[in-house]
Amino acid sequence: MSSLLEFREKLKLIYSRNDIYIISVMKFLLAFLALTVINGNMGYMNKLDNLAIVLIVSLLCSFLPSGCILFFAALFSLLHMYELSIEVAVVGLCLYLVVFLLFLRFSPRGSLLVLVTPLLFVFHVPYIVPLAAGLLATPAAAVSSGCGVVVYFFLSNVIANAQAISAMEAEEAVAKLQLVINALLGNKEMLVLVISFSFTIIVVYLIRRMSVAYAWTIAILTGGIANLIVLLVADLKYDTNMSLGGAVAGTAIAVLVAKVIEFFRFCVDYNRTEKVQFEDDEYYYYVKAVPKMTVAAQTKRVKRINTQRKSLSGRGQRTRSVRPQEDLSGPKRGRQGSFVRSGTVDEDMVMDVLDEVVVSDAEDFVNEDYVEDEGYVQGVEDDGALGYGEDAEGYPYEEEGYDSEDVPRNDPNVYEDL
Amino acid sequence: MLNEERVILMTKMESYEENEGKKNVKIGSYFRGDYIGLQILKSVISASIAFALVFALYIFYDFEVFMQDIYKMDLFAFAKDVLVAYLATIVSYGILSYLVYSYRYSKAKKSLKAYYDNLKKLNSLYDDEQ
Q1: Considering the domain boundaries, does residue B130 fall inside one?
Q2: Which residues of A127-140 are buried (b: 16+ CB within 10 A; e: fewer)?
Q3: CA-to-CA separations, A60 to A40, A148, A262, in angstroms, rounded
Q4: Is residue B81 part of a domain?
Q5: Which residue in chain B has the smallest CA separation from A107?
Q6: CB–CB of B44/B93 below 8 Å?
Q7: What's the predicted TM-score (pTM) here?
Q8: What's the pLDDT at A298?
Q9: Per-residue pLDDT tens for A233-259?
Q10: Predicted ipTM?
Q11: Domain span at residue B32?
């Protein structure tokens, strides 16, 4: 677990350092994927089915707002439909406009979900949508995911009926219109999925917000089961001919993906839950605090410390703390390099810190190179006869074994074995 | 001289202004009635366009039958039905918009209040320093 947490911290570090580039690359990849899938499945307009155009538009999307990806995807699909039949394109345009005017007006941020939902349908893992949206978004995502489902079924109907539509004569405009609209309105599977997605999103959202231990895990599992039950009941009632095996497998994958999302978004240690109660003038507070699981990401730091004092001169201000004269009586001789601040710092910990120290050649000495770990040790001298250090607050560490008053400062025997 | 508390406060406020705050400041510049009224007006226009689109599709869906019946049917009754459907759409969508935008307005105001409290705190930090 700790290595996973460390991996997560590393990812966070990489993301926080390069978020501008990572977001742009992600937008580019999403746009490229969406446009490639549209071209691959529809591809009626040969001019659009061109890698150069897809790349240029994807590059454009990489620095435009994320809503533009949906706009270009809609534009591509409309142009393909236009090539197939102008009536189909008109129906498509009306559908997109209604979705935009009535639903996306309330939640512009949901545009990404409208795009991602059909894509996940294409990759046969649509059940990720309700679980992930329930975990990461608000119940308003139910509207966006519903729009995504409708858009997917509309496009898949157009693709399924493409041959029939192209075989029709130009005079049969109304027949084309009827074919497309009937296929959409008469699709019970679509209706069932809209309902099950909305229901699952609300269930997952409500449970994950509850103040119970392992709320997210319970929410994921309950959401998965709720989704399956709704699909099963709808299949029995409306005879939708959905593949239940596929639904079970898809839900299992969705649960796994949701667990990964949970690890990145809500990794807490319920064993260390603290419950506190206090009051102020107006309220009583019953607070439950659950600590997050975190580890510090390991970063490689090379510490170069040289003890040849002659190399110290003329190298700027020396910030390493040197024990004041009166404190020199304080340090007690002990094992070289082991610093123990009485009662507060564990010796093993300090030894671990010292393990990081790499002693370099005299020429490599740089004043600013010190051992730093959790603010405990700032200065270390290795073999320069004295072993001393101080913590972040400037308190000197005492070496074990001797009491300061036992050791006369000028006693030559004090340092004989260092 | 740098005041750490002030710098932290200013950074937080700047981050708020850049992200969530931008939207909230815009909302906060309206009176409640003006903001909700404007949004409902926009919603009514959107819903009208959407209704017109769906109505046009409905007509074209059964265009031939419609054209045959147009001389036989009671046009006033048809227009009344359409008007009722239109008003029902507009009113229900308007009520939904009212609920959503009044919630958003109160949320934005609450968030802005916290922001203005921080502004006052920042001001007092400057005063303390002088």
Answers
A1: no
A2: bbbbbbbbbbbeeb
A3: 20, 23, 32
A4: yes
A5: B100
A6: yes
A7: 0.71
A8: 65
A9: 988 888 777 777 888 999 999 999 999
A10: 0.80
A11: 4-124
